[in-house]
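Hi V.,

You were right to ask for the full record rather than a summary. Here it is.
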Amino acid sequence: MPLFDYARASTIDEAIALLNDPRWVSRPLAGGTDLLVQVRHTKPNFQRLVDVSRIPAMRSVAREEGEIRIGAAVTYTELVESPLLCEHAACLVEAARLVGGPAIANTGTLGGNVGNGAACADGVPPLVCLDALAHVANSEGMRAVPVADLLLGPHQTALQPGDLITHFTFPLLPAGTRSVFLKIGRRNAQAIARLNVAVAGRLSADGRIEFVRVVPGSALPRLRRFTEVEDMLLGERPSTALFEAAGAAASRVMVAATGRRWSTDYKAIALQALVSRALRRVFRMQESNGTHAH
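Predicted structure:
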C-alpha cells in the first residue's frame, strides 16, 4: 500500500483547517471502507488523510423543526438502530441494513457513501427519494446542495478540494407516506448492487396516488428521480397493471438514456420487476406469491 500521512480532527473547524492546509493535498476519511480498498489498486491522489469519524457534530441523528438531520459520519449500523429514521426514513434504514456485513456496517458512513460517488451506492437513492440536502463546509463557509446535484456521474461529484460533507437534512415526508428500498446483487448477502431503487408514496382519502417518488440506482450515468414514471402514477388508483406499466416505463427511461449494451437485456427486465415490486410494497398490495408486503 502507498505511504501517506494521517491526521485526526476533533471539530469541523479543525477538519476544514487541516483539509485546506496548503502544505498538503488532503482528503477526508470517515469509515474508509471504499477509500482504503481503492489505494491498494491505484495511486492515491492525496498526501494526507484527515480523519473526521470522531467529530461529535457529525455523529448524531436528530429531528429539528420539521426535518431530520443526519451527521455525515453516522455509520450504517447507527442508521439502522435509529428509531427516528425507522419511523421517518424507512427506505434509508433498509438500504443501510443491506449495505454489507458487520465490519462494513459498523465502519462505513453515509457521508462516505455519498462522497465516494459510486453509481451503485445504496445510500444515495433513498437520500434523493427523501429530497435530502448535503451540507458542505469549506474555508469559505457552508453551502447546501441537493444530493442529486452533488453526484455528476460514476465516481464524479461536485465536491471541491477542501470540501467536507458535514451532515444531511431532509423534510419529513407527508403523514401517511411509506417508503421502501430494494436491491438486486449477484448474491443474497453483502453484494454490490447491480440495480437498486427507493420508492415513497401515499394515497389520498379516496384511494388515489397523491404522492410518489421513484429513484432507481445503478440505472443511469447520473442518478435522478424518474419523474416520467411518477407522472403516470399520480392520480391513479393502485393496481397490478398500473405498477407493471410503471416498471416498464422505468425500463424504457433507462434504455433511452444509456443505449443498449451487453447488460441491457438483463437490466431492463430486472429494473421493470424491481420498480413494480417496490410500488406494490409501498402501496400495500399483495405480492405475486400471496404474501403481504411488510
